[in-house]
Amino acid sequence: MRLIIAVDGPAAAGKGTLAKALAAALDLPHLDTGLLYRAVARQMILAGLDPAADSGEQTAHALQPEDLQRNDLRVPEIDRGASAVATQPPVRAALLKRQREFAMASGAVIDGRDIGTVVFPDADLKFFVTASAAVRALRRYQQMHGMADPVQAELEELAAEIEARDRKDAERPVSPLRKADDAVLVETDHLDAKAVLAHALSVVRSRFSA
Among residues 184, 185, 188, 77, which one has the least CA distance to residue 136? Predict the structure, then answer.
């Protein structure tokens, strides 16, 4: 089945987990577009550039597959850097072609912040995954520290950073984060990954079971 499925949503809402599992269940390729922006930010920092002040266009054009495999792309410094470079139109233009080419050959599940609104506005199916900032902060903490008892001050700091990124992503003039009008809303505060996947698969089956 050749489908293009867009999965959008804010940071740590569970969109990446859903997209990866959905792709595996449907035997489709998966692309986490957020990693592209994270990798651009990391490569800029390694080159002595400031993602918030310097152009990332050259870095985006030069991005290599191995740059997406680094294990230091999901840390607060790169959260901020990715959000900064994502506001740069030349960076978005450089990465847009790569994203579209990835999916056009055989279909894909693609997650990000503007997949259903900009990258693939005519996607066969769109999901918008969201959760409260408090829940997302706890998930991000667990990504960094495992299941250890959370430190409240660090959780509050993560929640504040997540809310700040939400505002920046929603208010940026280029490809702002927003739910596409035809996207299926999935709120994950009280759902684990298995339940979210089951719900998404039921939507897929209802749309494409003819």
Answer: 188
Q: Kindly tell me the number of DSSP H helices and DSSP E strands found in the chain.
A: 8, 5
Domains of the chain, by residue range, sit at 4-200
Does domain 4-200 correspond to CATH entry 3.20.20.70?
no
Q: Is 14 annotated as a binding residue?
A: yes
Query: How long, in residues, is the chain?
Result: 210
Does 48 carry a binding-site annotation?
no
State yes or no: 97 annotated in a binding site: no
156-173, pLDDT tens digit by residue? 999 998 998 888 888 888
Q: Is 59 annotated as a binding residue?
A: no
DSSP, residue by residue, 114-159: SIIIII-TT-SEEEEEE--HHHHHHHHHHHHHTTSPPPHHHHHHHH
**Structure letter (DSSP) for residue 10:** S
Q: Is 146 annotated as a binding residue?
A: no
Q: Count CA atoms within 13 Å of residue 97 on its CB side.
A: 8
Q: Is 188 annotated as a binding residue?
A: no
Interval 96-108: pLDDT, tens? 988 999 998 889 9
Look up residue 44 and give its two tokens: 């800029």
